[in-house]
């Protein structure tokens, strides 16, 4: 049982899609009937890409929200995390998308799960985030916090990339690959998994480096402690490369840029209720079979 106190005000972040908006309206009515104030926020994706700079002033959720319920898919969840930021507000993802590793709760369990949440019968699981900064000629041109990953990869028709990677200022290797994914354990089931990376339990405190289509088989995924600082540069022969943050926003980069990635000073708290198992979710999403 949590110590968040009684639910007085709940935020809803909803995908801008008819089915999701209808479900959000139904949930809002259900909560208000219980005397709970509701703040509803429609999530309209607005990808931001730039060739020059990316330092945003993102609005922050009201700190007095007891929790935030996210109705949509993983993209909506990631957008909502950008809104929650460092408030410490616990979040619950309701899957209205096709897959949904982050939005773990199926929509048909929305109201039974919400019944336990409004009665404070839930726990939270802490997830680490990463802070990523891009420096150009010593000046910071991008600053983002991610739940899933930072990805350096090719734009259209680019050749193989040469990605110089340092760990705590020690040169590690130059990945010759289509790109590189720097992921959290939460992000281990996103792009990193597609690129051949390992599945890491989301409560662990690690950072994963996963090369995308490496030129040689000796470039393998690497799991590091979350206490390290990772620096990434590309060689001057490379062009048309892009760095993206949680697939939400991105920036074109050149050999003049240095990407610095650290664990963020704050974490995200994901709501878990009785009967919810990460392993059951994993088996269902990956369609693992067995007796």
Q: Percent of residues in helical segments? A: 10-25%
Using DSSP, what is the number of strands? 19
CATH topology call of the largest domain:
Rossmann fold
Order of helices and strands: EHEEEEHEEHEEEEEEHEEEEEEH
Instruction: Please tally the helical runs, counting DSSP H or I stretches of 4 or more residues.
Output: 5
Please give a handful of descriptors for the protein shown.
291 residues, alpha/beta, Rossmann fold, Tumour Suppressor Smad4, seven-stranded mixed beta sheet, 43% strand, disordered N terminus
Structure in words:
This protein is of the alpha/beta class. The protein has two domains: 9-127 and 267-286, Probable inorganic polyphosphate/atp-NAD kinase, domain 1 (Rossmann fold), CATH 3.40.50.10330; 129-266, Tumour Suppressor Smad4. It contains five helices and 19 strands. Strand 17 (241-245) and strand 18 form a beta hairpin. The longest helix has 16 residues, at 18-33. It is globular. Mean pLDDT is 89; it is low at 1-5.
Structure at a glance:
The protein has 291 residues and is of the alpha/beta class.
Topology:
Layout: E1 9-15, H1 18-33, E2 37-43, E3 48-50, E4 54-55, E5 67-72, H2 74-84, E6 91-95, E7 105-106, H3 110-118, E8 122-136, E9 139-146, E10 149-154, E11 161-167, E12 170-177, E13 179-183, H4 191-194, E14 206-212, E15 222-225, E16 230-234, E17 241-245, E18 249-253, E19 257-273, H5 278-286
Parallel strand pairs: 1-2, 1-5, 3-18, 4-9, 5-6, 6-7
Antiparallel strand pairs: 8-9, 8-19, 10-13, 10-17, 11-12, 11-16, 13-14, 14-15, 16-19, 17-18
